[in-house]
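Can't paste images in this forum, so I'm doing it all in text. The chain is below; anyone willing to post the predicted structure tokens underneath?
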Amino acid sequence: MWCARVYSGVGVIALISAMWAAAVPAAESSHWFVPLRWWGNVSYDYHWDKAGGDASVARHLVAVNLNASTYVWQPWFVQLNGGLGVALNYSDARTGATTGTIASGHSKLLVLPQSRFPLSLHFERSDSQLSGELVGIKYTDTRYGLVQRYRTPAGGTTLLAGYDHDTYNTANDGEDVSNFARLEMTHHFKDQELKISSRRQKTEHRVSGETYMQDTVIARHSYHPTGTFNAESLASVIDTADDTRFMQSTVRYVQLSSYAFWNPSDKPVTITGGARYFALSTDGGVTANPMNSINANAGINYNLTRYTRLTGTATATRVSTAGHQMLVTTQTAGIAYQPAYIYFDRFQYSWNVSGSMKNHSGSEDAGKRLDGQLGHALQRSFPTGPGAVLTASVSQSVSLHFDSAVGVPQRISNSGMLAWQSTRGGHNTSLRLMVSDSRTFAGGSAGGEIFQLANFQLSSSSRLSMNSGLTGNLTIQAVRQVARGVPDTGIHASSSGNLMYRHNQAFGVPRLRFTSDLKLNANVATPLPWVENEGQRSMWENRLDYMVGRLDMRLCVRLSKIEKTYRTSILFQIRRGFGD
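Text version of the structure:
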């Protein structure tokens, strides 16, 4: 179908060109049409793939791609560019051989591109088999559309209207057809900006007949009279409709919000305030469940001294749902003190203390709460050689919370970090080990919560020679989390690693690049491919790239393992460019 559209479009262009040639003398016509700028390539791809116990598949692909660009009369009047690709595909598998033709193309027409009202029309069809890469999922994507813009003579207002049609097809899931339409308006006036946009999206899955539709309208207003004050407002309505084999549902989201910020340059104070309205209504085909909320908030930060800050906030929220209403209010006041670092010998010491009061009403956890926290940290760096330094740090914080609803929970957090970094010549290496332990005790009992983390990171890059280099990284992490009423599941480990070698003149051949890339991921502490575990992914890719003049060649061999399935892929490609 898309080929018919392209060929009919080419026919129309040819007909117009013939009529123009008949009506306009050749000398005058030369002023309207300029020589084409054209370029392209011819390529051959060989792709061999085998996964697990499946039969191997060998595919041969011969492709020709041609691109061209020109303009009519003057570059500011009409610009045209496009391309067409045609490939012959032959697949040889144990289950049988198949042949076919693959087509791709793109085109773009720009009318008055430098004016206040440019028009753009575009078309594109892509096929993953023509990407020249080892791809897992085969797909085709066809998209066409237009965009019309307009700007007022004064430049204060811009308008935009656009439409896109997209057809996405995969062998496994079938065809998805989507239509997008959008309208936008932006208006600038003194210290203010107003932007209104609307968008409609409709997607249909052709195999199942399921549809999805979304309508969105968003309005934004910004007010910036000075550098110390700004206000932002937003209004949005989003409607969605799902029609599947199992259910039909519609959802509407409505939101109105406004936020203001004031930070005078001559006063150590910051004041914020805002309001928000949110409404949600759903219809699952049987019952509707509306809900809405109104929220107002205000806050203030005041720097009493260079190291002391006072804070205060107040919020009020009214929630209405299923015929019930609830008003929730919160007020907080706090103080924080963090003095300057203390240096002695080669150590750096810091400490901080903070406290806050909170009153909460209107919900099940209503009550009063007092929070206090004391923390300190110690750090020191040790030179370990030319260009190398070892940094060690430890920190601790103790928190006490008095809550009229849940008692007096206490939290103690300890952490330590050891890092080493070396930079010497063309070699850079860094190691980092971090451990942390956080425990919460309720009413002094030991039956609280525990969170423990250990993380090790190693990264290195080395320039082995003028043309070669090696980079790698390794991350190992272990986590243990214990919550009240939940059984302790022990330590959960995960790891990942990457090692890459590059050579820009392999085997002494100029312009012959070799890349070897090894990637490992696992849910155990060692991401080795021979260690069986769930979620394991490993891949080793070796690639040769050679370029001389307009000739490009590539050979790629990839070995991969996803959980217990091994896959081998080989890609050979040769490409010759031509034209401008």
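DSSP finds two helices and 29 strands in the chain. The CA atoms of residues 303 and 309 lie 4 Å apart.
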